[in-house]
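Appendix B, record 7
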Amino acid sequence: MNHAPSGAPAGIVHLGLGAFFRAHGAIYVAKAMAASGGDWGIVGVSLQSPGTRDKLKPQGWAYTALELGPQGETPQVVTVLRDVLVAPENPQAVLDAMAAPSVRIVSLTVTEKGYCHEPSTGRLNADHPDIRHDLEHPLPKSAPGFLVRALAARRDAGLRPFTVLCCDNLPENGHVVRGVVLDLARLIDPDLARWIEAEGAFPSTMVDRIVPATTAADLDRLADLTGHRDEAPVMHEPFRQWVVEDSFVNGARPDLGKVGVQLVEDVTPFEHMKLRMLNGTHSSLAYLGYLAGHETISETVADPVFASFVNRLWRSEIIPALTPPPGEDLGAYADALAARYANPAIRHRTWQIAMDGSQKLPQRILGTIAESRAAGRAVPGLTLAVAAWMRYTSGRDEKGAAIEVKDPLAARLAALWRDDPAQTVAGFLALTEVFPASLLEDAGFAADLTAALEGLTVRGARAMAADV
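Structure tokens (predicted):
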């Protein structure tokens, strides 16, 4: 693949240029430019490693997005990227790009842990090592640090702030990122914080598309399909959805509504629907499926025990705790999710989804549990999912094989394990950065969680899922 990138100035800087954004947001932006014009090319930023940059640069920043449908595969070449920067190599270049007058949006997909916040409260973790660094140095390491320092540069240059567009799976993600940015700005320069608070925009969003990790076999298959070698393709399912609060600085944004983005006043009901119905069940199936020996979500739901389990989660535990978004039928949404999960072309690994559970569970599962228990509704399936996460973090599967646990709290979680399930549960429930206060004080939840954990240890994930 050989592409000559446009020399037009970029309108968007994206922090965290991973597979998801390249298979979702970048495609929407490219289609909006094709439909309605505008200088909305994207400068991508890798906050950690040069791998993505090094693969894309020889291709002129172009890449293939391969749609994996049940009936076949459809490629498209995406040419919306203008450049890719690697923050650890040159943080000043990243700040300069974000402060450029042509840039009107800075979007992010840095995962839950990238915001350096406490998931249970949504507030900045001022003791996070990257935040401590960013408080002491003008060239930042963290995503919040880059946002704050770049906004300061724009203020000092007499420019309006850029819109901060979070595309991560966080409830009220715009509100969370705004709070984290203001918390950090207040610690650096209270006047800057007041300017951001008065002038900035942090619209919340809901994003949805399953994007499995690309494998070496995918590269070879795509080369056979297209006749050219692409070292940085992305794989994705046919379905896509993007719901965005239409609140941008100066109203400046691509014509997203023209290409299917739902522009709304309040994204909260949509994100609750997606976080709890999709992400919540994805995590539940990931932990239980992995423990039961299933490599992918499609393999997991091909097992009738887990297909029935996830359907009961939707119908009996999650939907009763939700308010349907305008125009949405939650039962039909569950049916569509079931079909997406069963798509055999999407090899979404349970191990991949299981990463960073301490950051994901508060938004995906624990909120539903807390609200349901407060309302007197039983949630045995979701409680079993939490127990499965705990069992997973022990580092050993049901056959005694080692699990490579990827989580910011991995060492702490492994150290909480005891022979007595009740003692293990007590240790986990003391993690105030994970569990909300209402569950920490709920003796009934602790008892139910202990019984679920003991059942997983003695009987296994599949047998326990069958009984829910």
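Remarks on this record: The mean pLDDT is 96. The CA atoms of residues 23 and 234 lie 6 Å apart.
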